[in-house]
Amino acid sequence: MRKSLIHFFDTHQLNVTNEDVIASKPYSSQLKGKNNIQTITNILEWQENNIEYWFERAESSMLIYIATIYIAVSLLMFFMLGMGLNAPQTLIYFIASVFIITIIYLLIPNKIVITVFFVLYAIAFLYILNSHGIKIPLIYFVFGGIIGIIIGALVEKFFIYAHYFHKKSLPSSLRRIFEMLELTLEIKLPLSKLLDYKTAICRDYAILSAVFLINSKTEPYYVLIRKHVATAVKINDYFYVIDQQLPLRQLDKWLADNKKSNCRLYKVHFKDDADKANVEFIQKYSRKNKKSCPPNIQKIEHDVNQHFTAKDGSCHESFKIHINKKAVYFYDEVTHLSVVRMIIKEIEKQFCNNVSQISRVEIKEENEGLIVDVYY
Question: Which residue ranges run through the membrane (predicted)?
Fold first, then answer.
């Protein structure tokens, strides 16, 4: 029963529709490479360059579950507890709790501080009321506080989104802000909206990757761990994970980076003329203790230099770029291109329009990772 529920919630949030596939086709076409590895690397790099992580929506995912549980429980509790108090008195204390917690939520950015304050506030307020002979159940403050946090979160997000659209006319700005608020609370973001706003959380990234892969005739898989999901592809009987940023990672490496020992694997595929893809559980995968494979420095260095046009003349200066060890280990022929693209992107970030001045790039291995010396 428990496993069935887990699989139901997993697949419900990660559905791919024909509408999604059609909406992504213009993007998928431009990302198609000479081979499968190029296409997959292009998909990953495109996401890193064009999609921002939607932190407000990630926070709201938990808010939705809290609000749902709250509404169900509070309706029952207020009916039962309210019978022992007169309605005006109950309403006054409840509204006071909502108002105070909403203000505190908006004024204090640290949510841990808010939680501590709320507990202390409830205890202190109850003590004062009891000292005056007024008996109010603690549950009223708990429910009032939860509603205050939910209202505070929505008001906070309203002002965050207002910043993005302040240059538009007032009606247009309000329409876009309220649409963003609505999308923030969506379990599954329509792909057309994701491509419009260019912002996503992990399950949106996973669906987008899956759709791009379907358009490129590559079978996608979902890999799920607690509080996270990504898309994988199977190459040479092994899984490689596409997860928001370069480089492409082996599944065992991805699990190690996320400090997990296992994950759930789902295959995504369309059956006949179905409007929606079938998300089918295939196995629970356990991490293997594979030996770390160091990168082929010589080959990486050669391919990075091939990208930049050498400038005639001697080198006067050099600039060092550090690449984290975690990003390049568990390297193989499949991940090679994504490592090269990651290093090229780091160089271009530092040199901007002056990349034409680069004479050569030298890469060496150190304890903490790779040192990239760029001579110009």
Answer: 63-85, 91-108, 113-132, 138-160
d(CA 255, CA 275): 32
**Gap between the Cα atoms of 264 and 310, Å rounded:** 47
Task: Encode pLDDT of 67-124 as tens digits.
Answer: 555 555 555 555 545 555 555 655 666 666 666 666 665 666 555 565 566 666 666 6
Terminal-residue alpha carbon distance, the chain: 63
Rounded to whole angstroms, the Cα distance separating 142 from 258 reads: 34
**Can you tell me which residue has the tokens 């076409």?**
29
pLDDT at residue 112, as a whole number: 57
Quote the pTM value: 0.76
What does the alpha-carbon distance between residue 259 and residue 327 come to, in Å, rounded to a whole number?
15
Burial of 249 (0-12, 13-18, 19+ CB in 10 A): buried
Among candidates 314, 318, 340, 309, which has minimal Cα distance to 327? Answer: 340
Contact 232, 240 (CB under 8 A): yes
Instruction: Express as a percent the part of the chain with pLDDT over 90.
Output: 43
Q: What is the DSSP string of 264-295?
A: EEEEEE--TT-SB-EEEEEEEEE---PPPPPP
**Count of C-beta atoms within a 10 Å radius of residue 257:** 14
Question: Any alpha helices (H) in the chain, and if so which ranges?
Answer: 2-13, 18-31, 36-50, 55-82, 87-107, 111-131, 138-164, 170-184, 191-197, 202-215, 251-257, 297-307, 325-328, 333-351
User: Contact, 361 vs 305, CB < 8 A?
Assistant: yes
